[in-house]
Amino acid sequence: MDRGYVAMGGTRLYYEAAGSGDPVVLIHPGFADRRVWDRQWDCLAEEYRVVRYDVRGTGKSAGSSAPYSDYADLEKLIDFLGVQRAHFVGLATGGSIALDLAVDRPEVVESLVLVSTSYPGVRPSAVSERRRREAQAAYTAGRLDQAVEAILRAWVDGPGRTPEQVDTAVREHVRCLYSENLPRQEYQGRHNPMNPPAVARLDEVHAPTLVVVGEFDAEEERVAAEAYAAGISTSAKIIMPGAGHMVPLEQSEVFNRVLLKFFSLQVGDQRQN
Q1: Are 182 and 148 in contact (CB under 8 A)?
Q2: Strand partners, 51
Q3: Which domains are delineated in the chain?
């Protein structure tokens, strides 16, 4: 496996790459790091050159007080790795980063997979908003464990399930990621979002796109999935049974098969053309 660091903008990003073939780049959600893709890593590396990395200020990637943009960091990473064209898979905030890239550098995007990706402007449900406030209050009071538990209730369990209804291994894996990465967020520099935002430019996304949302995800995430599917003309949408927000962890075997089939269809279309 290839692994290392890429210097950029006053910091450096940690990455890992394995396998050979067409590149697949995995982008993790906020408060997590590259390890959220543990259940995809070996499977994808059997057929593809798979890349995952820690977004600035998470995992093994250093933070920085300088202004930055996550999609610009991703562009520098793939340029460093010599990735000319790839399949990009983003979970939650990672999906937003992948979408920004698809708008800013469409020539590098072979296909796009948006998993549980929020849509700016979609109002959170009352349950999600209450748990967000609980997490913020606990974190501000220095109760990290309570803050992480509130986030788990919101983004792992979902509004319609209890913790006991979720795979314990999944819950504890995400707890570990959140516990390590959540305290680091306040030391980040100012994030400069794309302007105008990518959601205002969905008609510019022409890469084949798969929109995935979990059956038990929050209502606003299901609305977001519908908005992306409607706004991107080359898209298809899948509702993943038995999963909440963390689809790649909760339904890893099914999700992996979906990814492999989706990627193979793009290869087939290329050969026909």
Answers
A1: yes
A2: 17, 25
A3: 2-122+192-272 (3.40.50.1820), 126-185 (no CATH)
